[in-house]
Each structure stands twice: as structure tokens, then as C-alpha cells.
Specification:
The chain has three helices and eight strands. By secondary structure, the chain is of the alpha+beta class. The chain has a domain of 221 residues: PH-domain like (Roll), CATH 2.30.29. A hairpin with a 4-residue loop joins strand 7 and strand 8. 11% of the residues are buried.
């Protein structure tokens, strides 16, 4: 089946500075995927991380590796084959704890696989030694119990098998010796890396203390900034109130300017009217004089009217008297006419009779 991922998380990847062996150098600009892979054909475990097309972690887990938590969200381990120290920064303590637990599980599995491989090598080596000790007795038994033909028939196949096993065991032992030398070299490298890691841990501890101090200073600075922000917010509120007041004042000023313009217009009109006041005064005096003359004439006319009214009343009284006399005259005239009429009738009667 090949290599398969068994656990995946996300973290910021760092590597120790190869020059100073003290400072961390970011290997990724942002949080990337970090995965544990298991190779079933080789029975091995690796930690792999890829940023785009760049492989930034390719670390095979060995039983001698140790994952160390240096802070609440940061952990690291040394890789002697890559000759570096990897560091991971996580977003939470839970992610760091889960990654550390998985590292220990993979490390134990790698140790178990190595122990099984060593037991197999030891078993093959013991089997080779036992086969070497049993070969003479088999030959002796064959020479005692059988003829030369039987010896050839029985001994040669077993010898061929034993020779094949011995050659296989020799190659296995040589491979084991080679692996042992490699492991000794790796052990020495791991010891050196462990010493470097101890130095790095000490430096990290010192850095942690420095970071704690810096964090305390940052907290104090943050508190100061919060106070300043609160003061600025109060000032901003006051400034907003002043702005609102200024806006209201601006509106009031515009209204006053409009009223002032209207008053100025009225004043200008009054000034224009004031220019014709002397003429109006002259006209007024002329009119007053005319009114006085008219009043005098009016009084005279009223006197005349009163005289006329008296005359009219006298004339009306005279007319009344004249009407009475005229009525008497008309009555008298009517009487006379009647008498004349009667006289004419008498005359006419007299004439007829004659």
C-alpha cells in the first residue's frame, strides 16, 4: 500500500538557524499542513510538511528522538539525519498536546519495530551458530549409519541447504554489523544533536524569560495604550459634541446672516424712504395748510348751511302757510266754480223755458 497519512494538523514551521544554532528561522510564511506518514513496506514513520511545491519537513521518526514542549503553543525536536532542529507553532494548546501524544505513539511504534528487527537478527544469528555446531554430528551419523553412497545421497543436500543458510546468515550478520556501525554513528550524532538541543533548550529557556519580560512590558504598554485609548475616546466624544454644537452654531449663524441680510435690505429701503421724507414733510405741511383753509371754508360753509337751513325752515314754514292759504283759495275757487256751474245750469234752464 506504500505510505499513508495517519494524522494531520496545521502549524507554523520553523528551523534552527544553521549558523548560530540559537535563533529560529521561519520555514513557512503562514500555517501549513503537517502530517504523520506510515510506510507499511519499510515499517517506518515520517513527519512531512509541504508549502506549495517546497518540502519544508521530511523527518523520519527514530526511537531516540524527543519532542519537547518549550511553551504553551510551541514544540520542537532534533533530526540528526537532516542535521537541524524543527519547531512548530500551534494555534492552541490542544493541538500541541495532540501532536506531542502522536509523536510519542509513533516513537514507541518505531522502537517496537526496531526491537522486532533486532530480535529477528539475533534469532537468525543464533540459528546460524546452531547449524554450524550440528553439521559435524550429522556427518558423523551418516558415516556411521550408512554407506558411501548413502552418505552422498543424504549429506550433500543438507550441506547445500546449510551453506545457503550460512551465507544468508553471514550477509545478515554483516548487514547487522553495518547497521550497528550506522546506529553507533547515529547514536553519536544524536548525542551531539542532544547536546545542541540542550543548548538550544537553554537558549530557548533564556529566550522564554526574555519573552516573559517583554510580554510583561507589552502588557504594561498595552494597559497604558488602553488608558490612552479611553482618554482618546472621551476626547473624541467631546469632539463629536463640539462638532454637533459647531454644526448647530453654523446653522444658527446662517440663519442670523439671512436675518441680517433681510434687516440690511429693510434698512436700505428705510434709507431710500428717508430720502423722500423732507419732500413728504413739505407736502404734508402744504396739505396741512390746505386742510386748515378747507376747515376754515368748511366752517364758513357750515355757517352758511345753518343759515340756509334756517332760511329753508322759514321758507318751508312760509310754504306751509302758503299751502294752507292756497288750499283755502282752492276750496273757495271750487265753491265758486260750483256756484258758477249751478248758475250756468240755472241759465240753461231759463233759456229752455223761454
Amino acid at each position: 500500500m506504500g505510505e499513508q497519512p495517519i494524522y494531520t494538523t496545521r502549524a507554523h514551521v520553523f528551523q534552527i538557524d544553521p549558523t548560530t544554532k540559537k535563533n529560529w528561522v521561519p520555514a513557512s510564511k503562514q500555517a501549513v499542513t503537517v502530517s504523520y506518514f506510515y510506510d507499511s513496506t519499510r515499517n517506518s514513520y515520517r513527519i512531512i510538511s509541504v508549502d506549495g511545491s517546497k518540502v519544508i519537513i521530511n523527518s523520519t521518526i527514530t526511537p531516540n528522538m524527543t519532542f519537547t514542549k518549550t511553551s504553551q503553543k510551541f514544540g520542537q525536536w532534533a533530526d540528526s539525519r537532516a542535521n537541524t532542529v524543527f519547531g512548530l507553532g500551534f494555534a492552541s494548546e490542544q493541538q500541541l498536546a495532540k501532536f506531542s501524544e502522536k509523536f510519542q505513539e509513533v516513537k514507541d511504534a518505531a522502537k517496537l519495530a526496531r526491537d522486532k528487527s533486532q530480535d529477528k537478527v539475533d534469532t537468525l544469528s543464533n540459528h546460524s551458530q546452531e547449524s554450524g555446531r550440528e553439521t559435524p554430528s550429522s556427518n558423523q551419523a551418516s558415516s556411521i549409519n550408512g554407506t558411501d553412497d548413502e552418505k552422498i545421497f543424504h549429506v550433500e543436500p543438507e550441506t547445500a541447504v546449510l551453506q545457503t543458510e550460512n551465507e544468508h546468515l553471514k550477509s545478515t550478520v554483516e548487514q547487522s554489523n553495518t547497521n550497528a556501525k550506522k546506529w553507533e554513528t547515529e547514536l553519536q550524532t544524536l548525542r551531539e544533536n542532544n547536546a545542541r538541543l540542550v543548548d538550544a533548550l537553554q537558549e530557548s529557556s533564556a529566550n522564554v524569560e526574555s519573552w516573559k519580560k517583554q510580554l510583561g512590558a507589552c502588557k504594561e504598554e498595552g494597559d497604558t495604550l488602553r488608558e490612552k485609548i479611553a482618554q482618546l475616546e472621551v476626547q473624541c466624544n467631546e469632539a463629536d459634541q463640539e462638532k454637533r454644537q459647531n454644526s448647530q452654531m453654523s446653522v444658527r449663524v446662517q440663519e442670523l446672516e439671512t436675518e441680517l441680510h433681510e434687516k440690511e435690505q429693510e434698512l436700505e429701503n428705510l434709507r431710500k424712504q428717508a430720502e423722500i421724507i423732507p419732500q413728504l414733510m413739505a407736502e404734508c405741511e402744504s396739505i396741512t395748510a390746505k386742510l386748515q383753509t378747507a376747515e376754515t371754508k368748511n366752517r364758513e360753509l357750515e355757517g352758511r348751511v345753518e343759515g340756509l337751513q334756517l332760511d329753508i325752515e322759514d321758507s318751508q314754514q312760509k310754504q306751509g302757510n302758503m299751502k294752507g292759504e292756497l288750499k283755502k283759495f282752492m276750496d273757495l275757487l271750487d265753491g265758486k266754480i260750483d256756484e258758477l256751474h249751478e248758475f250756468r245750469q240755472g241759465l240753461s234752464k231759463l233759456g229752455v223755458d223761454n
